[in-house]
Amino acid sequence: MTIDFLGSLFETHAIMWVVVTLFLFNLALTGFEIIIDLVTQKQRCWKDTVANCVIFVAHQLLEKTAIASLGFVALLPFYLITPAHIAMTTWSWIIALLVADFSYYWMHRTEHQHRILWACHSVHHSSKDYNLTVSFRLSLIEGLFEWMFLVPMILIGFNPFQAIVALLLIAQYQHWIHTERIGKMGWLDEVFNTPSVHRVHHGSNSQYLDKNYGGVLMIWDKMFGTFEREDEKVIYGLTCNINSNNPVKITLLEFSRIYTDVKKCRNNRDRLKIVFGGLCWRPSYFKSSN
Questions:
Q1: Whose CA is closest to 224, among 209, 238, 213, 235?
Q2: Cα separation of 290 and 285, whole Å?
Q3: Claim to verify: residue 21 and residue 101 sit in the same structural domain
Q4: How much is the pTM?
Q5: Domain of 278?
Q6: Is residue 237 in some structural domain?
Q7: pLDDT digit string, tens, across residues 172-226
Q8: Is 238 domain-assigned?
Q9: Which of 62, 119, 154, 288 could serve as 78's disulfide partner, Cβ 3.0–4.6 Å?
Q10: 92 exposed, middle or buried (CB, 10 Å; 0-12, 13-18, 19+)?
Q11: Chain-centre distance for alpha carbon 81
């Protein structure tokens, strides 16, 4: 396939109707939940909901810029150098979704383990509410690096269009699970990412930290020891909450915390470890200076 043809698929391929339909369905579902919460007077931080929606609008505006095509362009060199090419068929789409789900697991897990990536992803976890608008609460810059986790898919033969759309469908699936309106779902909670499973992932309870990274399937969490069932009541938010509904602060606070720690470092090695290392790592002299 030529590069121009691949790019045109984002406008012409039939699967894009599925993407658009899911997007519109998720918007309608969110509006429906808001109406139900208003009618039933469910306790909810409406300032938080507004902040989530503001971030969502900003995200949509950014997708109209060059940032939207960054992942596609960045993956093209890998597509051009690999000798493997998988034709787009019904079966290859099924396999692509499975591989994308596996890739999503490791992307998601990595974002929880390295501080500079967590600075982006923590935006999604910083709400102390849990409703469908939390799905809108995403970092504005994650798209600058998340494409990197699709490189293995390209190297084994999937084209950039198929890889990106597969990952996009994985993300679209996850919208409905950001709710307390749906309880436990029995055996489905053991197989799929469901509201109960994902509530655990958003919990700041010690037993829930760093659990349930899967996008659609829970098989990866069970294989790699990160699966946890919903047991005790979930406490949403971060272990160190931001206590703000300002979209700018929500988006940038963790970067500010990193910058503060970097300024306290005594050498470049420690500065690099602060930025790219684990979430909890700090030089030993930080403690003595407190």
A1: 213
A2: 9
A3: yes
A4: 0.93
A5: 247-289
A6: no
A7: 999 999 999 999 999 999 999 999 999 999 999 999 999 999 999 999 999 999 9
A8: no
A9: 154
A10: middle
A11: 29
